């Protein structure tokens, strides 16, 4: 019994042929029917041009030796001629034809083994959410080749999409599923041949950051923490980090922490959750929170100002707004609690020096809490005016030689910017460009009037002070001592006047310590010859004598003189008379000796006198004479211990003009004395001044020139 019989009949006759194709599954049974033509007696069924059976006179016969290695039957009835094949195999396929007579009229039936289409392997796909999914389903057509292709999904029985390409626009994570591509064809029996391939569609999507609540504004300097919460994406591995809009700021983790927040940290901060897809692409989702920082306005620095007294001053306070933006601006000053001026511009018309101060501009806003945010900038206003000079220590300075003296020129305002110059007397040369002059070791040459001038861009002023330099008392010179038996007479001289009062006192010492003369001190301020007597001395005793001269700056001792008192046996009156006669006798002897020397020197040849003067002058000019600052005459003759009695020497010395600061009148007097002595007519001169007589008698101890200089003060 046949498993199945498929009969295909075509009644359409075309010119030349009638063709059809029959698709049979392997193992099926089939009969191929051909329409016969009654008028033609002999008709054949052939396979691939090989006759398998024929019909003659209504009977159908199988052709011997042409039978294939298969079981088939040929039949004919009702105008049909058939060939039936059972258990169809692949090799049974072929072209079966009906050939009629010799006219070669044919009807063709192609026997084809039915087969379903074949779908190529489909790989799983991982589309990203919100993208378009496109999955092609490629296949090889079956037999028959006409193919129906469509897609289905496992979790949705109602889903069916025709066509070989699966298209899902803007795919969502809920579309993750197993999708199946089915390809079908229909065999001649009406049975369907089909093939299927499935693909796993795994939709990738990022994690999701939950919305964050906006924060209230925070004050600058406080701490801020914000947490970020998420749901997982696909794949679930997630990285969390924080960024902000204006820069490259990034902090990893679920919590954003801002310590001691600065107003520049105010910004939109975003929490981003991120996963990584198999392709390497990132899945991201973010939520943003706005952080507002309350902070004070900022006042810009203000430069110090130096207005001229009497001018109008304005200063501008520039500032940057804070948060909140509303700003109050006001001015204060450090030395006046009551001073306040509102607004960005400080105005001080006709400014005076007392307005010099530190001024402060304060900018201020108010936070929602009521707290005030403040910022201040201070600057100095220093009013410039003509300096009002002072001088220290005083306008008339009295100093002692050798002291350190500092004269300072100053103003009461130490911050006044000034340029200083010092000049002495009327000299235009600047001796100092600072506010002070220092005399490390002041001497007589520093005396004078000093003027300090100070100037600035407003004007200048001057002030003067004088320096007077004084010395301790000058040392007595030209000392002589004449000893009696119980007394001693001392004669000395001062050749210049002292600028301040001074007094002298005779002191004597028989052994070790000096005692004061009982006569006491005497005023020696003015130049002249002075004498004093030490009484009640011991006879035949060696004594030292000196003169102590004192002024308010100190004391000076003369050189020491030595003298031994004579032995004495007379009464008091005899002692006095003997002493007087002895003194006159000594003076007379000295005068005689001096006159003899003068006469002898006058007899020297001129050449010898000239050479003597030259040798003596040259010797003395190289010696350093330690003169007192007040000395009024040139004591060049007094520097040598060699006695020079020659009047010619003094005459030569005077001719050389080496008399220092002596006046013409003084020089006339010296010449008079010189001439007077040359004539040996000195009785009236000597008798009129006993002190000069005594000094003259002791002139051997000095030099003759000095004697003459002393006489000029008589």
Give me the secondary-structure topology.
Elements: E1 17-24, E2 30-35, E3 42-47, E4 50-56, E5 59-62, E6 72-77, E7 80-85, E8 94-100, E9 105-113, E10 118-119, E11 133-136, E12 139-140, E13 148-153, E14 156-162, E15 165-168, E16 177-186, E17 192-201, E18 208-209, E19 218-219, E20 224-227, E21 230-231, E22 239-244, E23 250-252, E24 255-258, E25 267-276, E26 282-291, E27 293-294, E28 298-299, E29 313-316, E30 319-320, E31 328-333, E32 336-342, E33 345-348, E34 357-366, E35 372-381, E36 389-392, E37 396-400, E38 405-411, E39 419-424, E40 436-439, E41 448-455, E42 460-470, E43 477-483, E44 488-494, E45 503-509, E46 515-516, E47 522-523, E48 528-534, E49 542-551, E50 554-557, E51 561-564, H1 572-602, H2 606-621, H3 647-655, H4 664-678, H5 683-688, H6 690-697, H7 704-711
Parallel strand pairs: 1-9, 19-27, 37-42
Antiparallel strand pairs: 2-7, 3-4, 3-8, 4-5, 6-7, 8-9, 10-12, 11-15, 13-14, 13-16, 16-17, 18-21, 20-24, 22-23, 22-25, 25-26, 28-30, 29-33, 31-32, 31-34, 34-35, 36-38, 38-40, 39-41, 41-42, 43-44, 44-48, 45-46, 45-47, 45-49, 49-50, 49-51
Task: Give your account of this protein's structure.
It is a single chain. The protein has 714 residues and is mainly beta. It has seven domains: 17-113, Immunoglobulin-like (Sandwich), CATH 2.60.40.10; 118-201, Sandwich (Immunoglobulin-like), CATH 2.60.40; 208-294, Immunoglobulin-like, CATH 2.60.40.10; 298-381, Sandwich (Immunoglobulin-like); 389-470, Sandwich (Immunoglobulin-like); 477-569, Immunoglobulin-like; 574-711, no CATH class. The protein contains seven helices and 51 strands. Strands 1-9-8-3-4-5 form a six-stranded mixed beta sheet, with no helix packed on it. A hairpin with a 2-residue loop joins strand 49 and strand 50 (554-557). The protein is rod-shaped. Residues 1-15, 570-578, 596-663, 665-670 and 676-714 have low confidence and may be disordered.
């Amino acid at each position: 019994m046949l498993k199945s019989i498929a009969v295909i009949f075509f009644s359409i006759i075309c010119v030349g042929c009638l063709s059809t194709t029959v698709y049979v599954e392997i193992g099926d049974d089939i009969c191929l029917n051909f329409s016969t033509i009654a008028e033609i007696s002999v008709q054949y069924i052939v396979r691939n041009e090989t006759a398998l059976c024929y019909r003659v006179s209504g009977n159908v016969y199988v052709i011997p030796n042409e039978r294939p290695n298969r079981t088939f039957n040929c039949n004919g009835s009702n105008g049909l001629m058939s060939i039936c094949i059972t258990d169809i195999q692949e090799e049974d396929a072929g072209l079966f034809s009906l050939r009629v007579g010799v006219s070669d009229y044919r009807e063709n039936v192609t026997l084809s083994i039915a087969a379903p289409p074949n779908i190529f392997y489909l790989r799983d796909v991982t589309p990203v959410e919100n993208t378009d999914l496109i999955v092609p389903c490629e296949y090889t057509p079956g037999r028959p080749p006409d193919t129906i292709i469509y897609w289905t999904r496992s979790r949705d029985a109602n889903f069916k999409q025709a066509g070989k390409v699966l298209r899902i626009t803007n795919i969502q994570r809920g579309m993750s599923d197993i999708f199946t591509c089915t390809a079908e064809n229909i065999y001649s029996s009406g049975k369907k041949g089909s093939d299927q391939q499935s693909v796993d569609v795994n939709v990738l999507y990022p994690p999701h950051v939950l919305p964050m609540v906006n924060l209230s504004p925070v004050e600058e300097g406080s701490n801020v923490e914000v947490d970020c919460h998420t749901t997982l994406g696909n794949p679930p591995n997630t990285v969390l980090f924080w960024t902000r809009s204006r820069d490259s700021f990034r902090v990893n983790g679920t919590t954003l922490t801002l310590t001691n927040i600065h107003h520049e940290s105010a910004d939109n901060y975003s929490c981003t959750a991120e996963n990584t897809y198999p392709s390497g692409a990132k899945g991201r989702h973010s939520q943003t929170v706005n952080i507002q920082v309350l902070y004070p306005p900022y006042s810009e620095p203000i430069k110090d100002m130096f207005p001229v007294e009497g001018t109008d001053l304005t200063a501008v306070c520039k500032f940057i707004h804070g948060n909140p933006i509303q700003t109050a601006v006001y001015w204060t000053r450090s030395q006046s609690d009551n001073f306040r001026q509102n607004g960005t511009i400080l105005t001080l018309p006709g400014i005076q020096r007392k307005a010099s101060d530190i001024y402060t501009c304060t900018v201020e806003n108010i936070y929602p809490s009521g707290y005030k945010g403040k910022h201040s900038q201070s600057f100095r206003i220093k009013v410039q005016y003509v300096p009002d000079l002072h001088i220290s220590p005083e306008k008339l300075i009295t100093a002692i030689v050798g002291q350190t003296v500092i004269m300072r020129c100053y103003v009461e305002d130490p911050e006044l910017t000034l340029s200083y110059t010092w000049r002495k007397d009327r000299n235009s040369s600047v001796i100092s460009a600072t506010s002070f002059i220092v005399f490390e070791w002041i001497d007589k040459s520093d005396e004078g009037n000093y003027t300090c001038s100070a100037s600035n861009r407003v004007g200048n002023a001057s002030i003067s002070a004088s320096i007077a330099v004084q010395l301790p008392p000058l040392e007595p010179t030209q000392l002589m001592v004449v000893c009696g038996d119980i007394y001693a007479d001392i004669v000395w001289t001062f050749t210049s006047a002292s600028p301040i009062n001074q007094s002298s006192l005779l002191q004597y010492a028989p052994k070790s310590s000096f005692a004061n003369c009982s006569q006491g001190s005497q005023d020696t301020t003015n130049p002249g010859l002075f004498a004093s007597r030490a009484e009640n001395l011991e006879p035949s005793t060696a004594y030292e004598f000196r003169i102590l001269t004192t002024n308010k700056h100190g004391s000076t001792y003369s050189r020491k003189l030595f003298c031994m008192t004579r032995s004495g046996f007379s009464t008091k009156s005899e002692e006095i008379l003997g002493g007087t006669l002895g003194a006159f006798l000594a003076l007379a002897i000295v005068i005689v000796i001096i006159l003899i020397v003068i006469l002898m020197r006058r007899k020297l040849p001129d050449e010898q006198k000239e050479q003597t003067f030259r040798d003596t002058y040259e010797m003395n000019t190289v010696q350093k004479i330690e003169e007192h600052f007040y000395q009024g005459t040139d004591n060049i003759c007094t520097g040598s211990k060699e006695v020079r009695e020659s009047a010619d020497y003094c005459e030569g010395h005077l001719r050389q003009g080496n008399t220092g600061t002596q006046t013409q009148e003084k020089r006339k007097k010296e010449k008079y004395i010189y001439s007077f002595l040359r004539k040996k007519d000195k009785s009236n001169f000597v008798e009129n001044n006993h002190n000069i007589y005594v000094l003259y008698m002791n002139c051997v101890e000095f030099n003759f020139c000095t004697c003459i200089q002393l006489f000029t003060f008589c």
